[in-house]
Every structure is written in C-alpha cells, then in structure tokens.
Write a structure and sequence with these properties.
Number of domains: 1
Distance between the termini: 31 Å
CATH superfamily: TonB-dependent receptor, beta-barrel domain
Number of strands: 39
Number of helices: 14
CATH architecture: Beta Barrel
CATH class: Mainly Beta
Strand content: over 45%
Radius of gyration: 28 Å
C-alpha cells in the first residue's frame, strides 16, 4: 500500500477520533439489541414479518454485538456469535492467508449467499486451492465490510435459492448498513500476549558431525512465549440528514496488523557442511506460521433521498484496499531450491531464505436504485456492480533455473479478477383474500459475471538453463507466476424470474411459497421452489417447517482457473497443474462440462416465546446436495500418462474440477436469548446457541478409467466431512449498569478430524474400493481408521470486555479475546507409536483446520466517541 495513502488516511482518522465532530445529532437506535419483535427483511419480502413470526430460522446480530469485541474482522465476529458459522484462520496457504474462507452449517464458502442491503454481493477472485477449509471454492470477502458500518446482520439458516438465486444452499447472510444520524469515531490497539501450548523453547544446539545427520537440540522445558501481532484500527462512522427524511451514512476504516509467528523450532540441519559453526547459532524459528501482515483501508457509504411523495432514490457502495504479506515454507541453505548454478551450486542465500507472497486486493462495489409505491405496489429497480482484484507478488525469493546471477529476487506473479453486474426489479403488494394478511412478490434479475487471469512477468514462470540441474522446478520459488497459457477472460449471463406468496391462512397458520426460473448462458435452465409454514396453536409456542430445492451455478473460477508449473523429468519439460474442464488435458482424463449443484433442503423446528423477554428456537435441518463440485486429487501414474499420450497432450499429472460427489448434511440448531427484567441492576441480556452438524458422502462419480476413491481420495473426502467442528456451543451475556458495561462470550468448539495422508492401495498398486473384502488393511484405512489419523479435541474459548463511560459521549473499553490463552492440540511429529509423522509438524505445531485459529490470547483497548 502506498505510504502516502496510509499517511493521509491515518491522519484523517486520528483527527476524527481525537475529537472532531459534526454538529450534534442523536444516534437513532444503533445500540438496540435485536429481540423477537424485530422486523426482518431476509427470507421474505413481506414488510411486517418479525423474527418470532418467521417460517424459517433467522439470527439477527445487532450493531452492539459486533462492536463489543476486540476483533474488527466481520467474519471473525460472526464466528464468535453464530453457532453454525465457522471461520478457521489457515496459514501457509498462499492467497488464502489474506482472504480467508468462512462456512455456514458445514458447507462450502460458496454455498452461502451474501447480500448487502438485500442485494447480491460479488464474490472474491481468489480460488481456495491449498488444503484449507473450503478447498476448491471462492467466497465473498466479508472482511471488506467494517463492523462500524453495519446496523445489523440477518443470518437466514435455510435454503433460499428459489427466492434469491444461486449459492443460497446453506442460507443467506444479509448485511444491513446504517442509516442513522450521528456517528462514532474510535481507535483500538491490541496485541497477542500468549504462551504457545506444548511448543518448547530451544536451550542448546550441538553441531552436526556426520554428512547427513541433524543437529542435536535440547529444550528448556518451558513453553515458548510470544508478544506479536500488534493491530491498530482507526474507524469512523458519520450519519448526516438529507432533506426531511433522507440520509447519508459514511464509514471509513484503517487497519494495520503485524504478522504473528507460531512456528516451532525446525529440527533439521540447515547447512550442508558437517560441523558448520552457524548450525549452533542460527535462530531455528526461521519459519513464519500464523497471521500474515495486513494493511487495510475500507470505505462504505449508504445514502437515500426522497424524490416526490412516494419515491426514494438510494445508493450504497464500497471501496476496499488490502495489502497482505504471507510467508511460504523456509528454503534451507542446503536446499536445491537455493542452489546457485551460476556459481557451482553454492547457496544463493547463505543462511537460506523465507519467501513471501504479497497480495494486493482491490474491492469495489456500487448499487443505485429507485424504490417507491405505485398502484398499491412497492416497487424497486436497481443496478449493481462489484469487482474484486487480486495481484500476487513474490519477494525474497529466486527462480533457481535462471541461476543466481540472472534471476530477480522479487517478481510480479500475475493475478485474478472477478466482476459482477446485476439489474434487479422487485415488486410487492398486500392482498385481501378474505382470510388474513397476504403478500405477493414477484421480480426479475439479469446478471453478468466476468473472470480473468492475468499472466505474471516472464521471469516468474521462466524455464531457465539450469532446469535440468537444480531438481527443484522452475519459476519464482513458493509461487510460480501465471503463464500466458493460463491467462483467460470469460463472461456469462443469467436471467431469472421469481414469484413469492406469503399468506396468513388464519391467526394460527401461515404459509409461504416461492418459485424461481433461471437461465445461464453456459449451462442452461434451472427451476426451484420452496414451501414453508408456521403453526402457532397457542400464543408463544409455534411449529415451523420448510422444504425447498436449490442450486449453485459452477463458479467462474471453477470453470476457467488454470495454473501450470514446469518441471524436468528425464531431461524433458512437462506440465503439472490445475486445468479447466475444457482443456485438452482435463478432457483426456475424462473431464466433463460442469453442471450446477442441486440441493433439497428439509427443515423443521419449534419456537418458544411465552415468557416476556425470552425466545428459544430449535431447528433440525437436512441438506442433500447432488453433483457437488470438487477438485480432484493430482492424478498421476502410468495410466494417466497413457491417456495423456493417446490424446497427444504433454504432461504427467493434472487435476481439475468435477461434479464429483453427492453429500448429505444434517444437524440441529438451538438458539436462545433472554432479556432479564429490570430489577434496578442495569440491563442484562443472555444468549446461548448450539449447533450439531454431520456431513456424509453418499455417492461418488467415476470418470474414464478412474475409481471414485482415486478422483476424490480419502484425505480430501474426510476433510470435507469431518474437517469442521462436529458441534459448537456458545453462551454470552451483556451487562450495562450506569457508566459501566461488560460483555462475556464463551464458545466450545467440538472435535475436528484430521485424516492421515496414507493412500489406500492394493498389492497391484491400484486404488482400493470399499467393496473389495479381500484387502482388509486397505479397507480399514479407506474406511477411516488409518494409523496416522489425528483428532483435535474440543476446546473452550472465552472472550471478555469491560467498558466505562467517563462522560456520556466517550467510551473506554479493555478486553481480551481468548482470555484463557487456549490452543488447539499440538500435532505429533517424528516417530510416534510406530507412525512416522515426519519433521514438518515440529515447526508447524498446530493445524490450520482449528476452528478458532492458533494465535492465543489477544489483549486490546479501545476509545470511542459518539456524536
């Protein structure tokens, strides 16, 4: 990020937070917590529906709940507050370090639809590929939305593709922006003060003696302490009146996060020569495993003004900039990826090097429209545009094949672009059918999507003269640039029409029905429907249920993403990589055009709000997804080579997207909230939530000569089904009395299963199928009982914040996220109980699949001024 940009914005934010204010306006309702009487705008287009009256489960997260935390990442806040929402924080996953995926109900990031003010938010351009949760998907970057800009978030936990279109299989997250007059300016600072659980500090290193032995390392017996990850956040929200009833609300936010490092000591030797004295003195924590460095600027506005008595002209939009820096794996001094063949193979970096992947993300969105009433109809016509741009750079690295004298140390590796345009028309009116309130809504949508890959500079992918010598591939180390053959510029259009009916058949019985037709230019038509009902036999006790069909169109990146790397095999250059389904390589391996995922959602539940201030909901869900899109394993071997050669396609291995599996996800959501009556002890609000979730693969596809287990093998299969918490419980309280306030939240994350990377094969070298009873050991491994399997045990994470107002406009807060300094289980390494886990876990001690990350205790302070 340019220094002048940062300096200018930081100065402006500091002036605002330091006391500059507009003429005094009272803030209207921004701090009101949601209750069962809150009017909702998600899940129905009816204008008088409340949380308690909804036919489907909806969580409403208030502005207060989002602000009373040390975190300023919207995804992380939702992970703390919504039981069925999961936001792990992976590391060493390339661009995913800077743009992290989140999930709802254990499904993929691209199987939940995100709206802002009821309008579809554009996807990110990043495709998650490197073994994190959501592998093979591209989601919405919700961390571009500053929490201070949000009035509330409505989380619809039910299939809604018939109402909103593609992606709404798991549900819908609708972010409602502030309209209120007044504002807030705030500055926060925090850092990690933590002790890494079961990761000891090095005490002594003895020099190597043999030609290939590792150094002897002893430890102090004390866990490693860390003080890092300093985070500064400056933000302001200003709401101004426009005319008699118009509004202009603007939010600016700047975040500066320093990197964290939770690596353990690397036990391997670093230098080639035996007895090298540097082996004893070098800092063995040379990896950087944790949060990357990040600098963010985000701007949001939300505006509206009357044009005539019954019409409003409205607009909202955003601009976000994020400059990230994530680390790769350390290349040791003796590593062939550090060999300088211009100088006889001597190390290019004398002590080895840690390459960095930089990411420059630019995110833009604009929506404008006109809404009002005519002829008894509420009408809304809007146009929206959004784009996400990610450019990769690689620093402190080298293209070994070029030689140390001829390779740059910094590369432009290319990037990706995603753009979306949408025109929406919505109409709603109330009907009098003689038996209760009835709402009819209908509408249409046109949407255009565009996806691009931009090639990097030639040196980032070049095949230099030493490709046959170094044995470490070509291109810039840690991230090879996109080649010209990977560059793509593709678009598609879709047209949709929907109708929705919401009727009170009596005082006790409500029915909702919806249908949607949609046509995509790249794969054709889809029709989906939904039926939901709510029955309240006595006041305060209701039953509800829904059944719906849904779909998710294949992502543009899933259809067109391509990246290749070139390696030497037997003196011949060959390509290995990820290929679009339309490429000759993928077709030779049996790839077929991607079809949309299709889902059937069932839900049923109970609503209890007989007691004033108390609301409890219990909901069961069952989601069956057919033709789920997955990324295959990297396919290689003699049969792969034969297929490629028969098709005259170069290369020895490849992977591509397929409609690979059918899945069934079922679970239970329990959510309760209670506003304690006023006994003169201030305002006390309690909330609890519980999610139980289970996903199974019910069928697999077979393409060409490949078995189902080979296309989507054991490790990725079990990560899909068991790589997220099997259950999650949260409980919290917010207490305000006089000038003081407190928020306490506790989350218990259930177990997470990490499968061994053992590949089940028979004696003849072919993959094992589950119906082969002759190979018992392989059946045991394939069925989920491999010797190297690991289960992360359940963990409690507690957050606490205390607030004080010395004078009415000013609030001071201090707190800690992960107050008790909890970590996921330490991963085993080396030889343990007859299983060789290798050396990597010695310096990568925690799993990126941990649902609460692995950073430890974060302590913070915040000062805010209301005006």
């Amino acid at each position: 990020m340019r220094t002048t940009q940062l300096s200018t914005f930081a100065l402006a934010a500091a002036l605002v937070a330091g006391g500059w204010t507009t003429p005094g306006f009272a803030q209207e309702g921004a701090d009101e917590a949601a209750d069962s009487a809150t009017i909702i705008v998600t899940g129905t287009r009816r204008t008088d529906r409340t949380i308690a009256d909804s036919t489907v489960p909806i969580d409403v997260i208030s502005s207060d709940s989002l602000q009373n935390s040390g975190s300023t990442e919207t995804n992380r806040l939702l992970g703390q507050l919504v039981p069925s929402f999961n936001f792990p924080q992976p590391s060493l996953t390339d661009g995913t370090d800077s743009l992290r995926p989140a999930t709802l109900r254990g499904l993929a990031p691209d199987q939940v639809l995100v709206l802002v003010n009821g309008k579809r938010r554009h996807l990110s351009s990043l495709l998650n590929l490197n073994g994190s949760v959501g592998r093979g998907s591209a989601g919405v970057d919700m961390n571009t939305i500053p929490p201070l800009a949000i009035e509330r978030i409505e989380v619809l936990r039910d299939g809604a593709a018939s109402q909103y279109g593609s992606d709404a299989i798991a549900g819908v997250i609708n972010v409602q922006l502030k309209k209120s007059v007044g504002g807030r300016a705030q500055i926060s600072y925090g850092k990690y003060i933590t002790t890494m659980e079961d990761v000891e500090q090095v005490a002594n290193v003895l020099p190597t003696t043999g030609a290939s032995d590792n150094p002897a390392i002893s430890f102090t017996g004390k866990d490693r302490k860390r003080r890092d990850g300093e985070t500064y956040t400056m933000a302001t929200n200003i709401g101004l009146p426009v005319g008699d009833s118009g509004y202009l609300n603007f939010t600016a936010e700047y975040k500066d996060r320093s990197p964290t490092n939770r690596s353990g000591a690397d036990l391997r030797r670093n230098y080639a020569a035996a007895g090298d004295p540097r082996e004893v003195t070098i800092d063995r924590y040379w990896h950087r495993f944790g949060d990357g460095e990040s600098k963010d600027m985000n701007f949001f506005y939300n505006a509206g003004m009357d044009v005539g008595a019954d019409w409003e002209l409205y607009s909202f939009g955003s601009y976000g900039v994020r400059d990230g820096n994530g680390a790769g794996f350390y290349r040791r001094a003796l590593d062939p990826r550090n060999a300088d063949w211009d100088n006889g193979g001597a190390p290019i970096y004398a002590d080895g090097y840690l390459p960095y992947i930089t990411s420059e993300i630019r995110d833009i969105a604009f929506t404008g429209g006109l809404r009002g009433m005519a002829g008894g109809w509420n009408l809304d016509l809007s146009f929206g545009y959004g784009s996400n741009r990610l450019d990769y750079g690689v620093e402190n690295t080298v293209n070994v094949s070029l030689g140390g004298n001829h390779s740059p140390r910094k590369f432009d590796a290319g990037g990706m672009r995603y753009g979306q345009m949408a025109v929406n028309f919505d109409a709603q009116r109330d009907l009098d059918l003689g038996f209760g309130d009835t709402s009819l809504a209908l509408g249409a949508e046109w949407r255009n999507e565009n996806y691009k890959i931009v090639a990097g500079e030639p040196a980032s992918y070049a095949v230099g003269p030493y490709f046959y010598t170094n044995g470490a591939g070509v291109g810039s180390q840690v991230f090879g640039g996109f080649m010209p053959s990977s560059a793509v510029d593709k678009s598609r259009d879709s047209f949709a029409g929907y109708v929705e009916l919401d009727a009170d058949l009596s005082d006790m019985f409500n029915v909702q029905a919806a249908g949607r037709y949609e046509h995509f230019s790249d794969f054709g038509d889809t029709v989906n429907g939904k039926l939901a009902a709510r029955f309240e036999p006595v006041d305060g006790l209701a039953l509800r249920g829904s059944v719906s069909t849904g779909f998710r169109a294949p992502g543009m990146a899933q259809q067109y993403f391509s990246t290749t790397s070139t390696i030497s095999q037997g003196g011949t250059l060959v390509e290995v990589g990820t290929f679009p389904v339309s490429s000759p390589i993928a077709i030779a391996l049996g790839a077929q055009p991607l079809k949309p995922e299709k889902s059937v959602n069932f839900g049923g539940g109970l609503v209890f709000d007989m007691v004033p201030g108390l609301n409890v909901t219990v909901d069961y869900y069952r989601i069956k997804i057919k033709d789920r899109i997955t990324l295959t394993e990297t396919l290689s071997g003699a049969d792969v080579l034969a297929l490629l050669q028969a098709a005259n396609v170069p290369g020895t291995s490849a992977r591509f997207f397929v409609n690979g599996v059918d899945t069934r996800t079922q679970g239970l959501d329990i959510v309760g909230s209670y506003r304690v009556p006023d006994f003169g002890l201030g305002t006390l609000r309690l909330n609890v939530g519980y999610n139980l979730n289970d996903t199974k693969i019910t069928d697999r596809r077979v393409f060409s000569a490949f078995t189902a287990q080979r296309l989507f093998a054991r490790q990725e299969s079990l990560r899909l089904t068991d790589g997220q918490p099997s259950n999650k419980f949260n409980a919290g309280l917010t207490w305000d009395i006089g000038k003081f306030g407190m928020t306490l939240n506790a989350n218990r994350y259930g177990k997470v299963f990490l499968p061994d990377s053992v590949t089940a094969v028979a004696a003849d070298g072919n993959p094992v199928t589950l119906n082969n009873p002759a190979i018992r050991d392989d059946i045991r491994i394939a069925a989920g009982d491999a010797p190297g399997d690991i289960t992360l045990s359940p963990k409690w994470v507690v957050d606490l914040e205390v607030r004080f107002r010395p004078v009415q406009p000013v609030q001071i807060a201090v707190g800690a996220n992960n107050l008790l300094d909890e970590y996921p289980d330490r991963l085993p390494f080396g030889l343990v109980n007859g299983v060789d886990y290798g050396a990597n876990n010695s310096f990568l001690p925690y799993s990126s699949f941990s649902p609460f990350g692995f950073s430890g205790r974060f302590v913070y302070g915040r000062v805010s001024v209301d005006f």
